[in-house]
Amino acid sequence: MEHIRLDTLSPEMHEALIAAELAMPTAYSPYSHFCVGAALVADNGEIISGSNVENAAYGSSICAERSALLSANTLGFRRFTCVAMIGKPEQGVTEEPIAPCGACRQMLLETSEMSGRDLVVLMSNTEKTKIITATIHELLPLAFKPKHIGKKLEHYSKSHNQ
């Protein structure tokens, strides 16, 4: 993990963070009142964003990272270089960078496996004054992977939009 400054981000990572920030206001968060935006950078540089969507049946809620993954999949994207996330309460800001939950880490890990690279995870506080980068394998060590159940993802790893 590395703490970095906004002005040292690569152009690709900076664009992803901005896209995640722009997705935050689209969150539907009547229960937690916490808005999160996430953005994935596809192999071809295209950015796909998502926001959290909550539900009265709490288990049916979906985080911004998984929302972005589902949108990307629907658009035919399967290979990514990084994911950025940023969040805030409806009123106020976060002081520390937000990180993906366990379920999102697991889905990002499988996406990383399909991408054939260790996905970079960019986590920011609301004001973008504290930013952390890590790889998904750093965030989910000793992960349960498709290979553990004898699955290979080559057939599924091809993006269908290129």
Describe this structure in words.
By secondary structure, the chain is α+β, with helices and mostly antiparallel strands. Helices cover 26% and strands 23% of the residues. It contains 4 helices and 6 strands; from the N terminus they run βαββαβαββα. Strand 4, helix 3 and strand 5 form a beta-alpha-beta unit. The longest helix has 14 residues.
Strand arrangement within the widest β-sheet reads 1-6-5-4-2-3
Helix content: 25-40%
Rounded radius of gyration (Å): 15 Å
Number of strands: 6
Query: Could you give the distance between the termini?
Result: 32 Å
Sheet/helix structural class = alpha+beta
Short description:
With 162 residues, the chain is α+β, with helices and mostly antiparallel strands.
List descriptors.
162 residues, alpha+beta, Cytidine Deaminase, domain 2, 6-stranded mixed sheet, 4 helices, 6 strands, 26% helix
Topology overview:
Layout: E1 2-4, H1 11-23, E2 34-42, E3 47-51, H2 64-74, E4 80-89, H3 102-115, E5 120-124, E6 131-135, H4 136-139
Parallel strand pairs: 4-5
Antiparallel strand pairs: 1-6, 2-3, 2-4, 5-6
